[in-house]
Amino acid sequence: MMPTASTSRRRSFYGWGYENEPLPAGELEWFERAWAGLLGIDHFDPAPMPRAGEIALRAPRVQPPASLAGVCTTEPHARLAHSYGRSVHDLAKMILRRDFSNPPDVVAYPQTERDIAQLLDWCGAHGIAAIPFGGGSSVVGGVNPPAGARAALTLDLSRLDRVLEIDAASQAARVQAGVLGPSLEAQLKSSGLTLRFFLQAWEFSSLGGWIATRAAGHYATIYTQIDDHVESLRVVTPAGTLESRRLPASGAGPSPDRMFIGSEGSLGVITEAWIRLHRRPTFRQSTTVGFRDWEKAVGAVRRLSQSGLYPANARLIEASEARFTEAGDGSRHVLVLAFEGADHPLDAWMKRALELCADHGGEWDAKALAEPESQRSGAAGNWRDKFLRGPYLREHAIARGVMRDTVETAIPWSGFLALERKVKAATLAAIRAATGREGSCTVRFTHIYPDGPAPYFTWHAYGDKAKLPEQFWAIKSAASQAMIDAGGTITHHHALGRDHRAWYDQQRPPLFAEAFKGAKRRLDPHSVMNPGVIV
Amino acid sequence: MMPTASTSRRRSFYGWGYENEPLPAGELEWFERAWAGLLGIDHFDPAPMPRAGEIALRAPRVQPPASLAGVCTTEPHARLAHSYGRSVHDLAKMILRRDFSNPPDVVAYPQTERDIAQLLDWCGAHGIAAIPFGGGSSVVGGVNPPAGARAALTLDLSRLDRVLEIDAASQAARVQAGVLGPSLEAQLKSSGLTLRFFLQAWEFSSLGGWIATRAAGHYATIYTQIDDHVESLRVVTPAGTLESRRLPASGAGPSPDRMFIGSEGSLGVITEAWIRLHRRPTFRQSTTVGFRDWEKAVGAVRRLSQSGLYPANARLIEASEARFTEAGDGSRHVLVLAFEGADHPLDAWMKRALELCADHGGEWDAKALAEPESQRSGAAGNWRDKFLRGPYLREHAIARGVMRDTVETAIPWSGFLALERKVKAATLAAIRAATGREGSCTVRFTHIYPDGPAPYFTWHAYGDKAKLPEQFWAIKSAASQAMIDAGGTITHHHALGRDHRAWYDQQRPPLFAEAFKGAKRRLDPHSVMNPGVIV
Asked: How far apart are alpha carbons A185 and B507 in whole angstroms?
């Protein structure tokens, strides 16, 4: 049996960061004050965090054959650390209930595609569920072993973490799927190229995970989702290994890549991809724009999305959310606006974008525009810091009974305001019904398209620690159903996992489910790949 | 029995345009001189065009049931007109051989989705091949009834040709799939919106055809292929009707739309789509840039593709091709460069693009830049006119033994120059071997991506009218195999049909074929949908 892949620092088995690395001084206190103010709480009584020693794990129901023992472990810490993703629901079950009743039986750390093929053969022969695991940051139950499985093997891809080849002329690289965000950028750095896929979970999510879940990254326009960054894929399926041809574009039949992008491990294990990169930006223009009127702010961003200017960032944050994250004082809605590139100064781009904003009553921060360095400490910088630290605080919030979650969607512009009303009303009512207290629900746009925005709703509620998983689920369900009822998608970039199935089934054309099942049957004849996800 | 859909003007059953509408005076003479000069021909002896009366069609092998008689016809002209697409191979068989030996048995003009569902039921019950037919402009054998079918029904979508709904705020419209390019734009005109999908076959190709074949349109960057214009689809399959949700983007599982985009009628009949539109451009900057050195010209366009400037047109034309189409005098390679939009003046965009070109030895037409109207009569205008008239001349070329065809692909930048050499060498050698004469093969870029161009090769050869289909096929095969061997796709936007199957089978991952078959089995259990295409 081998140790887990991390050697110097070990990831927390229940939380976001590394073991024995406490939060920076003062950070938790800042958030406690913010939560207390937002939810009217006068005293926190944090539950203790779980310790591995206090959890008695079920004995493994299967043991890997001798030929695979070298890449497998049944060591308790590895099984604990692969029992859940990192949703509020997951954390509440781990922290408040010590519920590790359904861990994977075996965790594998394959080092080659051959290892993966042999692991899948073993799963197929014995009806063992195979769960691909990248960074483990799923907030939708995507990596949790399914309840009814005979046994479960988690395939942790962390040993497949190399950039294998860089094609500088074509601005593309061949990369193994298990690489996490920081390592990917470190390996690309000397080439001057970057994927710049700075999603909130960047630190603990993998390229393969982004592809499998259709994640969305840094850019607010054009290169929003991972979909358009994929030039080609290699996938090990139970039926064999598939490699698509590396092409800038093709009209030769339906795209093979698009069948695997978003398949969430249900067809096979993505092992490698050629990905499209960007040159590191050397030109940057950024500022924040304040709007007193929400509908006008939405109108400004709509015009911006349809202008052909393609800002790198166009994050419209509702006034009350901006106040909470110190991106604003609460008097105005805040648009965090930025242009960046590696080819030319962007003054003309920003000038026109600000004209559009002014036409809709927007007033911008001239100081930020004139002094780019002030961005790091100004409103946009505050917002970014809170955004990036969010996942680190989640476990501490839950230990205090504070639920902070997000639901996110996409919708044509014509439907946005009605969707916003419905989702907020349903969420706030559900918070009241579930907890007996008032909560909050605010919105921002994470990405924008000419035909509509990707709205991202953040809700906070103070619950009963004894009932938190059930309270959370009631609120999340209400918010999710409202998004579907209003015409949105159940997710723009958080994926489906097992948690979103009920709403995905309402959204997905039934005949597409049939067709996908037909495809899956050919690639995964024994139905071992991530059962319960997609179909 | 009902007449065909066209009433006032009837389409030629073998050629590009309408019956009894001769070419404009002088046009054929211009092309005859050009072909004669290019291929060293001193005299043409054109074969006569076919007349419907001289062709004895096989009796229909099936008759539609009474319930469907109202939307079906077995009238000879309709069957003739749906026997082929419009490839050189198709035209050679029609014009030089009067070969109409495999017409569809019945042509249907459905007016509703219910008509289509009933027609597919009939096909399924009797093993009749069902061939969706949009504008009939396929150059890859996509609408030709398959040779081995028990019987064939062509579903002509021309009666489903309405724009049903326009969502101005979201810049999108719900449109029936049978609408042809000009009618679509005419119906959109009052909204100020446009699809601007001006491919060469625009006049005689349909929205549903563009989606089914992954066509590419006007824009050289970003909005190149139809793929990104599709917000949602309705498809009638033999297993039922499917409708995807209208969304700007989604991360909820693999995209249902992407399974049908490029499926070429093999899964069902696309009946409707919500499509993303653009505002009609009101700002425009355009010019031509000349380059003496081909590799430097390619380098300039590569940098342009990676600049974030996103030109609407960036068509790099090799010097000899530019001379032939009067886009240049043959001394320089010509880049037709344009920016357009509806939001802001584009001076800064063009200025930077020209700087990039100058860095690579490019010299631009300052007069064209200063006087936009001169574009209509200048080099770019000449090029466009020849481009748009090309399909009208194809039948006249073939009647004279002149083959003019194109193969097109996409390839990462790092592989382009080697691919170019291989395709040209293989094509010229094959022309020599097949015809015993020298021919020509030139290249241009139709679309560009940050990771590679879409090169478009045009070849001309003078053949033996008695052997033209075979000579054509030998040359096309050599050019196609060279593209595949050099790492390209068999098509960037001409689709697969039946003609590209041999190369598609080399390009497509075998396991994707298996998966697609699994999906098709669920949607088309009796395998009636366009047999032989895709799988």
From this structure: 31
Q: If you ran DSSP here, which 8-state letter would residue A180 be given?
A: B
Residue of A348, A282, A349, A278 lying closest to A310 (CA atoms): A349
Q: Which of B258, B490, B521 sits opposite A254 (nearest CB)?
A: B258
Domain co-membership, B465 together with B371: no
Q: Is residue B250 within 8 angstroms of chain A, CB to CB?
A: yes
Interface check for A515 against chain B (CB to CB < 8 A): the answer is: yes
Model confidence pLDDT, tens digit, residues B262-287: 999 999 999 999 999 999 999 999 99
Residues of B in contact with A417 (CB under 8 A): none
Q: Rounded to whole angstroms, what are the CA distances from B280 to B138, B190, B191? A: 28, 11, 9
Taking an 8 Å cut-off on Cβ atoms, the answer to whether B254 and A509 are in contact is: no
- Looking only at Cα atoms, what is the longest distance across chain B? 70
Q: Are residues B31 and B155 in the same domain?
A: yes
**A167 has a chain B CB within 8 A of its CB:** yes
Q: Which two tokens stand for residue B27?
A: 């046009």
B206 lies in the same domain as B271: yes
Taking the C-alpha atoms of residue B320 and residue B329, their distance in angstroms, rounded to an integer, is: 8
The answer to whether residues A255 and A287 belong to one domain is no
Q: Residue B442 is part of a domain; what is its CATH number? A: 3.30.300.330
The identity of residue A444, as a single letter, is R
Q: Does an H or E element contain B462, and which?
A: strand B452-462
B51 and B145 both lie in a single domain: yes
Domains in chain A: how many in total? 2
Which chain A residues contact residue B140 at CB under 8 A? none
Size of interface A-B (CB pairs under 8 A): 308
DSSP assignment of B29-62 equals: HHHHHHHHHHHT-----PPPPP-GGG--PPPPS-
Query: Containing domain of residue B92, as a range?
Result: 27-159
Pull the structure tokens for residue A351. Answer: 């000038």
Q: Which residue of B has its CA nearest to A140?
A: B252
Angle, nearest 10°, between helix axes B294-305 and B347-359? 140
pLDDT digits (tens, 9 = 90+) for B333-385: 999 999 999 999 999 999 999 999 999 999 998 888 887 666 666 788 887 88
Residue B519 in any domain: the answer is no
A171 to chain B, any CB pair closer than 8 A? The answer is yes
Closest by alpha carbon to A218, among A196, A194, A202, A186? A196
pTM confidence score: 0.97
Instruction: Of A309, A374, A345, A356, give the one whose Cα is nearest residue A365.
Output: A374
What ipTM, to 2 d.p.? 0.96
CATH code for the domain in which residue B249 is found: 3.30.465.10
Q: Which residue in this structure is represented by tokens 């390009």?
A: B507
Q: Within 10 A of B518 (CB to CB), how many other CB atoms are there? A: 18
- B84 belongs to a structural domain: yes
For B209, which DSSP code? H
Distance CA B321, CA B307 (A): 27
| Structure tokens given for A507 | 């959204």
Residue B3 confidence class, pLDDT cut points 50, 70, 90 = very low
Tokens of A206: 């993998």
Other Cβ atoms within 10 Å of A381 Cβ, number: 17
B167 and B275, same structural domain? Answer: yes
CB-CB under 8 Å, B521 with A518: yes
Q: Using the predicted structure, report yes or no on whether residue B125 has a pLDDT greater than 80.
A: yes
Last residue within a domain, chosen from B279, B310, B330: B279
The nearest alpha carbon in chain A to B453 belongs to: A248
Nearest to B524 by CA among B259, B272, B257, B273: B259
Q: Is residue A520 within a helix (H) or strand (E), and if so which, with residue range?
A: helix A510-523
Task: Tell me which residues of chain B, numbers 50 to 89, contact chain A at a CB-CB cutoff of 8 Å.
Answer: none
- Note whether B351 contacts A: Cβ–Cβ < 8 A: no
Please tell me the distance from the alpha carbon of residue A501 to that of residue A486, in angstroms, as a whole number. 18
User: With 0-12 CB in 10 A as exposed, 13-18 as middle and 19+ as buried, what is B374?
Assistant: middle
